[in-house]
Amino acid sequence: MTGEYAVDVRDGRVGLVMGRVGTYVQLRPPGGGKEWDCPPDALVPAEPGEVLRARVRALNREGRLP
Question: Least crowded by CB within 10 Å, which of 46, 53, 55, 63?
Answer without folding.
Answer: 63
